[in-house]
Write a structure and sequence with these properties.
0% strand; mainly alpha; rod-shaped; Lipoprotein; 95% helix
Amino acid sequence: MKKLLTINILASLAIIAFITCKQCVDMTKENSMEEHNRVHLD
């Protein structure tokens, strides 16, 4: 029973980490694209 609980906690932590990581990646992608465009426009 305790083992199952640990697996559930780990799974939810992994899901949360994955979601926040994805948001971070999307943000950095947008930022780097803006910088990329700015470099080319100058």
